[in-house]
Amino acid sequence: MLTFAIRRLVLSVPTLLFISFAIFMLLQLAPGDPMAQVPLTVPPEVKERMRQALGLGEPPLVQYGKWLVQMFWIEPQVLWDHWFGTNYSEGKLRVISWQTRSPVMDIVIQRMPQTLWVVGLSYIVGILIALPIGIYSAYRQYSVFDQAGTFVTMIGFSIPPFFTGPLLIVIFSVQLGWFPSIYDTTLVVDSWADFKSQLQQMIMPVMVLALQTTAQISRYMRASMLDNLNQDYVRTARAKGLSEAVVVMVHVLRNSMIPVVTVIALGVPAIFGGAIITENVFKVNGIGQLLITALFANDLPMVMTLTFIFAFLIVMFNLIADILYGVLDPRIRYD
Amino acid sequence: ERGSDGNVSIIYWQAPSIMNPYLSGGTKDIEAASMVIEPLGRYDPTGALVPFLAEEIPTVENGGVSEDLTSITWKIKEGLLWSDGTPFTSADVVFTAEYCMDPEGGCAQLAKYSGVETVEAIDDLTVKVTFSQPTPNPYGPFMGGQSPILQKAQFENCKGAAASSCTEQNFNPIGTGPFMVTEFRPNDVISMEANPNYRDPEKPAFATVNFKGGGDANAAGRAVMETGEFDYAWNLQLAPDVLAKMEEGGMGQPVAAFGTLVERIEMNMTDPSPDLPEGERATVAHPHPFLTDLNVRKALSMAIDRELLVEVGYGQAGRATCNLVPAPALYASDNTECLTQDIEGAKALLEESGWTDTDGDGVRDKDGMKLSLVYQTSTNAVRQDFQALIKDWWSQIGVETELRNVDSSVFFGGDPGSPDTFQKFYADVEMYANNFDGTDPQSYLSMYRCGNEPKPSSQWQGENINRFCDPEYDALLDELARTGELEERGRIAKQLNDMLTKDTYTIVPLVDRGRVSAHSNTLGGVQLNTWDSELWNVADWYRIEQ
Amino acid sequence: MLDHAITRIENLRVEFETKAGTVVGVEDVSFEIGPGETVCVVGESGSGKSVSSLSLMRLIEFGGGDIAGGRLLFDRKEGGEINLADVDQDLMRTIRGNEIGMIFQEPMTALNPVFTVGRQLTEGLRVHRGMDRDAAEARALELLREVRIPEPERRLKQYPHELSGGMRQRVVIAMALACKPRLLIADEPTTALDVTIQAEILALIDRLKRETGTAVMFITHDMAVVAQMADRVVVMFRGNKVEEGTAEEIFENPQHPYTRALLAAVPKLGEMRGKPLPEPMKLLGKDAVTPKPIPGTDEVLLKVRNLTTRFPVKGGFFRRTIANVHAVEDLSFDINKGQTLSLVGESGCGKSTAGRSILRLVEPMSGSIELGGKDIVALNPRDLRTARLDMQMIFQDPFASLNPQMNLSDQVAEPMRNFGTLKGKEMEDRIAMLFDRVELPRSFLRRYPHELSGGQRQRVAIARALALNPKLIIADEAVSALDVSVQAQVVNLMMELQAELGLSFLFISHDMAVVERVSHHVGVMYLGRIVELGPRAAVFEDPQHPYTQALMKAVPIADPRKRKSEKDLNFKPIPSPIHEVGYEPGPSEYDEVTPGHYVLTSDSGY
Amino acid sequence: MACLTRGSVMTDPVPIAALQDKEPSAPPASKWKDVWAQFSKHKGALLGGGFLVFITLAVLVGPWVWPLDPQALDIRNKDLRPIYTALWDGEAKVSWGHPFGTDNLGRDQLAQMIYGGRASMAVGWAAMVLSLLIGTGIGVIAGFFRRLDGPLMRLTDLFLSLPILPLLLVAVTLFRQPLRANFGPEGGMFILIVTVIGITSWMPTARIVRGDILALKEREFILAARSIGTKPFKIISRHLLPNVLSPIMVSATLGLATAIITESALSFLGVGFPSDFPTWGKMLADAVPRMEEFPERVMLPGIAISLTVLGVNYLGDGLRDALDPRIRGR
Ligand SMILES: Nc1ncnc2c1ncn2[C@@H]1O[C@H](COP(=O)(O)OP(=O)(O)OP(=O)(O)O)[C@@H](O)[C@H]1O
Ligand SMILES: Nc1ncnc2c1ncn2[C@@H]1O[C@H](COP(=O)(O)OP(=O)(O)OP(=O)(O)O)[C@@H](O)[C@H]1O
Ligand SMILES: [Mg+2]
Ligand SMILES: [Mg+2]
């Protein structure tokens, strides 16, 4: 198992390098210009100067090389310095965003809390709702509950968040005035009142996102339960005189969770990637919003770094899912 | 009394990403920064110049501007302090000019300093700017939100190539304005508090500011007018009915003001046909097959009902116009003939000049050439509505239109490699809005000089978007540059404006676009200003007790 | 004794609601089981054996069944007799696993793969006996000892997949016995196991019954097992009981025609004693032609010399080969035209690999294969494809070896299409002829595999193998998965084809009785080597190698008077065929005891 | 015993039942009839399929039944409400000329729904087919050819981490002009959007197919096919593909749904079709600001999208059951 993990880890290095190169070239090819947001009153020569100042004049390969060095050599040094109070990174140029002229990683770290809170919590809520629905629908296959659950989860799957989001805002913010329509990212929770307002502002984005998660995970759960409910070992468990609760919730569930847990693990990178539309609708200003504004502002270093982080997480969680599979299922051995 | 009114919340649906206007040309950044750092003088809502850090606005009359128009001398108010308590001196002003004029800095406001030869400190409170040639409008540097004064002590090490590594300075500039930054989260939130060293001890009335960015205009308007979560929302580019509906929310109200921003259709005088080899497409080498015909351009303009466009797209935030320079009054031509739609007239005009529908497909043609246009603009709901309406009218006069909308980051991006930029103009007509800084249209009108068109040899840079070329126009421009007397300047500018619009229909102005913002009913002191930052007088804002 | 029957089934009727309407799983079955008695329920697949036993456990409800009629009387330890058919599931739970234990057919899937053996064993004890964890574990250990699992302490911590099939089945038995049930239901507990392991399990159940006086309901379709185990026998046929009696009565004097047909189809080890040549079985109900012996020829068709096949085991950081599975080691034999060579041996000894290596479906590592003088090993891929015109294969699992998405005529036509041997009308005629040949109605041409029974499918596989007129057919456990009656038919069919077409067979099987019936020559394999090779009569009647002798002893004989006793069995666990890279086992050396009868003298690992 | 046996042959000349072939009782049916029989038992699938057929027909023949041009502006009749609002609101501006009402420029909503549906359905189908082809192709190749497995799976990782928006912008710049020249402005954009959605959504299909192929490869019938000389290509097309049909079917239905939703999200972000080219997603996105006054403008396209996706999903469920011979066989 350990060799397997290490091997895959080492193999993922060239993969990631290749991915980063591919993303970089793609972004190079992309049209658009960081100067697009500069008003038309600014004359072209000035814009050209500004471009030069951003390092846009250099050939793409040189830019890529610089990015690699900054991302994999200087940024870790910064992290090291931050933890241990050393100063290796002093005076070295980090990955700088074109929009804000500040280190990309700082902004990413700044955005992490709200993204994790909202998107992460919605993932957890979604899973917590999905699992019981999936289990019960499978146990009572074709019952009214199953049919209704299927219907509702499919509706949840099919309604885009840019529709549910504003709908919730109109109902709960404008009409009822229960929840704020604009998320306050500066809120620090240190009292019950703050906690309450935190809850209030999270509830709508979390529910919108959880709807999607619920829909998908409950489908997986149901299918996996159905697979296992017909297995021989279930009959054996019943023949031992175990109660239905134990048979289903211990024997069947434990087996059914194996594929579902890996599916859940594969969904985790999306949490860090944020939820572009939902964040935008509720002004959560997390990673998703960061990516979309960077994209529209053609802030290449930011887009590049974010997509790369995302790619990194995907590759890692692919690996984690594989390892989890092996851990959860004693039959699987990697050697 | 300072700080007595608690907190004010402002929402900008485009989030500020930096507090240094010299490193970003974006309006959102300039306006956010304007609460913290200030120029020597500003424009007020009428376009008049008012002193801020200067004692008075220098003019030829008061001797501040030299007779030969080559230098301007600013007197700074006495006793000004930076928010860190250090005194404000002319050295800071000189430094600011150096900072922006550094060739490696990539200063976004460099155009403000064009023609500047030297900036020197005469004494601690006097600065003299010398231009290399007579400059009738010497209010480029240190005037308006684009050109505020930076503190020398803070930015000393940030000149040139080092500009972008000064994150701390760019996010938290020390200023003389009513507020200072306590926390800056790029593209998200800025928290500010009142500047204890602000020159007026009574102001600002608010102790803190919560400046939120992000989302869309719709949500921003809703947050001010419907849910009352915010006090001020910037630039609500929304359809009039949407805005009206929001106002019914009763928590706030929209305010509008007009500047020089004109939504216009530009006619391509060159041939954008994709059949031409790359490098010759849309260049002066190939005149446009039919848009060079004045009657066609005129007919296209006549077919448009500008009032309806305003009603559909802007409501109280728009005025139909026939002028490229709609304000200030001194420079605005009184041309109104285009305001009435005349479909029949347009048809007759086309008929007259030989454009008839010979093959009965509803599209006029002549010499085997069809009146078929590609009409491009950037992606934006109102613009798309305009496209649809105009396409409809043009089809009524027998002109076929293909619509195209391009993502605005590409359209305005100026990437010479992209075929979709407004400069390349790979379309027959295109629509966008433009304006000029300050109140003087000289440089704005100079854009349409012969040879200033985007072309391959200039990397497709250039401002003469429709490739207009008229020696008479150029001669008139030169005359304008030599003239200092205001009345005379106004006359020449009007004549130039008419040459582009009603005489040649090279530019077909549609709507004079105002600015709509909204403030809550409890926020007082808002004076919407389109000539400068909207937040120019934020120091005077206060809470209305209810 | 019958007055105190532990359980009495009276007129049981079980129905299933399916989409196609109501299906009757069991129509009318009645029998009883007394204490200390083993009642064997026999009958072929689908006759309702499992359904009856599941009804008794009231587990049938979970499979969608419904007890539509009859009574299931069960004598509880205290509280007297109750009718299980109408007690509620709560009470049933206290009976299941406690008073009635059940062993299932498939040891591979009957255990939950993600829990340890210990956990699964103690579960029932903790529920029914209210034991705490330590007590339950102690008891579990005791149980594992009772079922004679080696190293019981270690097993408790292991997961099911870490045990061999035989060990798993013992765990299932231990589980069923955990609470000392009064009735033990064993549903085909040995069908999936090797003869040697089967013998051990049978002995185990028998001993436990004798020691504890438990009543045993033993379900099987293997008459040899019945002969070995049964006190009384219940014969079922299409949901009905057709006959009941003591084992001797049933075997010696069957009354119902079905029972007689069944018995006639059972090959009995030793039946062929004295007949040098194989001959088809005499089946009931078929045209009464007297079976003729099949002589074959002496002309060598296939010549295999020193065939060695190893599978690399990859591992480590660079995924290099760290070891090899020595699946086939230095194998040499000949097959004559029109004759059959059988390879027998326990699971994993390399029989299938040997067969596949000959067709080069797996690449042999070394050795030579000559088919009709052509060296198969040296062929390039294109020529190999053509060479396969002459050799075909029939696989073990009739459910897996046909593509579920293709209709039968297409499946049979495929080889002809591949080689373009026949086209259009000619091909259709040949397909029809082949269907006639294997006695499938032509109406089956457009059907799909799932509509057929196992025997019918296997005949399609045979038709497919015959389509190209091959000279050699490798039949890899071709009849192992079939019911006895069907098995007999398929075996007869193969022998008839051999007689008529002069086919040669490499017949791979672990069923000694069938092998005895069909072979001219027999090779006994152990750990990848042939330990004994010779004419069938010589090997069966005069086994020389100790392994062959042990194997012969383990085979149950379908005759209740020839029961084996436990002490005859002595099996060692098979050593692993995995060896380090670079390990080179010595060559096989044989001693020719009688002409053509070779016995391995070098080390075989046994 | 021998005597007994002979006796029984004489007394019982009829071959006894047990040794007779059990013929399937049902008459031989074609595979597709079977599939249909199973499919028609799944109520949800029937409803979903029926709805899908209805929607497809509606958008295909709609323009003949309702010949209004969706582009046509009728500014006098702008902001009409759908006809049914008259039921509870006598004051509402309604007109039989525009049964679903009009938008703020007076464009007919019914016509927009029809044309928008055309675009959405076309994008959905085309993108789904494309992603299916790529996904199945890559999955089959990776599963079948062991050597290519690693590289192809890493490629899948790469595509998983590709951001769709920049990709779309790149594609628009690089290919708009040639595509426009060949297929017209809408056709060109259609091809672009379909391609981008297609190539950013094939990865799950590829993974599932690969997994199934790996498992199928070990089944005996594949070995059997090899032993009767079937060439690799034929093994794939005849034996592997038909057997992974049901997971492919499920991905297909999911793919259709996601493609429709992705297209609408792109419209929402403003990078989709030309402005005057309605799609359900764009109608929905455009109507969100006026959701309170004109709820129907969000509801109509919203419901259309949801029902289509729902219908497709149920159809997928039913098809999976119908195509699986094990389920069908029961
Ligand atoms: N869940 C079920 N649904 C429908 N029919 C069933 C079900 N289980 C069993 N049957 C039917 O009941 C009949 C008896 O099946 P059963 O499993 O008892 O056979 P068996 O004698 O145990 O066969 P085998 O030797 O193959 O195990 C069969 O014809 C089968 O079709
Ligand atoms: N493809 C393979 N890769 C690695 N090892 C294999 C492979 N195929 C078979 N083996 C190993 O080779 C040995 C012989 O296997 P084989 O299938 O030939 O046995 P068998 O005698 O046919 O057994 P059974 O009676 O169970 O079919 C076993 O240990 C098996 O695990
Ligand atoms: Mg059974
Ligand atoms: Mg085998």
Automatic annotation (TrEMBL), chain A:
A cellular component annotation (GO) from this entry: plasma membrane
Keyword Acetylation: no
Sequence ranges assigned to domain ABC transmembrane type-1 in this UniProt record: 112-321
Subcellular location: Cell membrane
InterPro entries tied to this protein: BPD_transp_1_N, MetI-like, MetI-like_sf
tRNA processing keyword on record: no
Keywords, in A-Z order: Cell membrane, Membrane, Transmembrane, Transmembrane helix, Transport
Membrane-spanning residues: 115-139, 151-179, 199-217, 258-282, 302-328
Alphabetical list of Pfam families matching this protein: BPD_transp_1 (PF00528), BPD_transp_1_N (PF19300)
Biological process, per Gene Ontology: transmembrane transport
Membrane topology, from the record: Multi-pass membrane protein
Family: Belongs to the binding-protein-dependent transport system permease family.
Protein name as it appears in the record: ABC transporter permease
Taxonomic source organism: Thalassococcus profundi
From TrEMBL, chain C:
Keywords assigned: ATP-binding, Cell membrane, Membrane, Nucleotide-binding, Transport
Top-rank lineage group of the source organism: Bacteria
Coiled coil (residue ranges): none
InterPro entries to which the protein is assigned, alphabetical: AAA+_ATPase, ABC_Ni/Peptide_Import, ABC_transporter-like_ATP-bd, ABC_transporter-like_CS, Oligopep_ABC_C, P-loop_NTPase
Main location: membrane
SUPFAM superfamilies named in the record: P-loop containing nucleoside triphosphate hydrolases
Positions of region (Disordered): 562-595
Limits of the ABC transporter domain: 7-263, 302-552
Compartments in which it is found: Cell inner membrane
Protein's UniProt name: ABC transporter ATP-binding protein
Source organism phylogeny: Bacteria, Pseudomonadati, Pseudomonadota, Alphaproteobacteria, Rhodobacterales
UniProtKB/TrEMBL annotation, chain D:
Transmembrane segments: 45-66, 122-145, 157-175, 187-209, 240-261, 298-316
Main location: membrane
Listed InterPro entries: BP-dependent_transpt_permease, MetI-like, MetI-like_sf, OppC_N
Protein name as annotated: ABC transporter permease
Family from the record: Belongs to the binding-protein-dependent transport system permease family.
Gene3D superfamilies in alphabetical order: MetI-like
Organism of this sequence: Thalassococcus profundi
Record has Magnesium as a keyword: no
Domain (ABC transmembrane type-1): residue spans on this chain: 117-316
Any Pfam family matching the protein: BPD_transp_1
Bilayer topology term: Multi-pass membrane protein
GO biological process, one term: transmembrane transport
Recorded GO CC terms: plasma membrane
Location within or outside the cell: Cell membrane
Keyword terms, alphabetized: Cell membrane, Membrane, Transmembrane, Transmembrane helix, Transport
